[in-house]
Specification:
Its cofactor is Zn(2+). By secondary structure, the protein is an alpha+beta fold. The chain has one domain: 2-Layer Sandwich (HIT family, subunit A). It has six helices and twelve strands. The chain has a nine-stranded antiparallel sheet with strand order 3-4-6-5-10-11-9-8-7, with helices on both faces. Strand 7 and strand 8 form a beta hairpin. The structure holds 5,6-dihydrouridine-5'-monophosphate and zinc ion.
Length: 355
């Protein structure tokens, strides 16, 4: 029998995380009798003064939000990282290690309206979000090694608030994902003399099978080693280390590809598609000026949905105790996303108005 990646199980290597994933495409045929998520039926109001992220609303700390027109960034009122805390001191035993950790957490609202998510925004509005992302990375990166921008979208991802927003956590340490990606990209660069993700982008542009959308400056692909069914990576085609190294044209081009990708995501199951996304780029702070040529800026989009708006992929059992496993291949997922329209399904819906 000849090997067919669409039929036969195999493992794939993730060079960024130095991990393997089990691909079992033959399982796509199995019927689903498990948990079905309730679709979120609540219609989001454009403005709700009881929502602490809205313009003019009162936040947890008693402050009133300004009447903002585009983005609005504030220090998280319930931060996981504080700027000034005592140092735990040297560890006494190798099995009980700890290190000092400090940082700052911010929340960034993308738009004054709670019912306007990124794919429904204009390119100008998305560009405002990107400009703010760059600005905060530059500012917080003066002091901190790692500035993690991330968006949890949808209740299924534990997002507590429907208002379009992301969080920014800046830390004095490299979090695990960053540390591992740093090491893997460094090893690849030493071995091949080219940044790993530049090689990867060129391969994907040539092969086309996993590309979802691309434009002159960016490409969105379902990575060869994707774990989540419709996971994508968004990468610049040029070598760019950090968000604030993007020029005006590249930022405008990023707004274009984000709108196209996120519109496809929403169109897949005709819901506001839930995901966790985040940006990774070269470290900052006291690591900004060390050799970082191995780093390439990129974003990860990690959506939990599998076969409909209500069936989610569970990462349990084998995934928690052995390794990640997927049914649908990355190529099948990319083909499905590729064929979806780039006009948002809500734009056909007469219930939706611009009032
Ligand atoms: P998530 O929905 O992604 O969890 O983000 C909402 C964040 O907003 C959350 O981290 C913060 C929460 O701490 N927040 C405030 O800082 N002030 C408030 O008044 C409400 C929510
Ligand atoms: Zn990454």
């Amino acid at each position: 029998m000849e090997f067919d990646p669409r039929e036969h199980q195999h493992t794939r290597y993730n060079p960024l995380k130095d991990e393997w994933i089990l691909v079992s495409p033959h399982r796509m045929k199995r019927p689903w009798k498990g948990q079905v998520e309730k679709p979120s039926e609540k219609k989001v109001q454009a403005k709700d003064l009881n929502n602490p992220l809205c313009p003019g609303a009162v936040r947890g700390n008693g402050e009133v939000n300004p009447d903002y027109k585009h983005t609005f960034t504030f220090k998280n009122d319930f931060p996981a990282l504080l700027e000034d805390v005592p140092d735990p001191g040297p560890s006494q035993h190798p099995l009980f290690r700890s290190e000092a950790a400090c940082g700052v957490c911010e929340v960034m609202c993308f738009h004054p309206r709670s019912d306007v998510t990124l794919p429904l925004m204009t390119l100008y509005e998305i560009n405002e979000v990107i400009r703010k992302w760059s600005e905060r990375t530059l500012e917080l990166g003066k002091k901190y090694r790692w500035v993690q921008i991330f968006e949890n979208k949808g209740e299924i991802m534990g997002c507590s608030n429907p208002h379009p927003h992301c969080q920014i956590w800046a830390s004095s340490f490299l979090p695990n994902e960053a540390r591992i990606e740093d090491r893997s990209q460094k090893d690849y660069y030493r071995k091949h003399g080219v940044p790993m993700l530049i090689d990867y982008v060129n391969q994907e542009l040539e092969m086309q099978e996993r590309s979802v959308v691309h434009n002159d400056h960016w490409i969105a692909v379902v990575p060869y080693w994707a774990v989540w069914p419709y996971e994508t990576m968004l990468l610049p085609r040029r070598h760019v280390k950090r968000l604030y190294d993007l020029n005006d044209t590249e930022r405008a081009s990023l707004a274009d590809i984000m709108k196209r990708l996120l519109t496809k995501y929403d169109n897949l199951f005709e819901v506001s598609f839930p995901y966790s996304m985040g940006w990774h780029g070269a470290p900052t702070g006291d690591m900004e000026h060390i050799e970082n040529s191995h780093w390439q800026l990129h974003a990860h989009y990690l959506p939990p949905l599998l076969r409909s708006a209500t069936v989610k992929k569970f990462m349990v059992g084998y995934e928690m105790l052995a390794q990640a496993q997927r049914d649908l291949t990355s190529e099948q997922a990319a083909a499905k996303l590729r064929e979806l329209p780039e006009v948002h399904f809500m734009e056909y819906n007469s219930d939706y108005c611009e009032c």
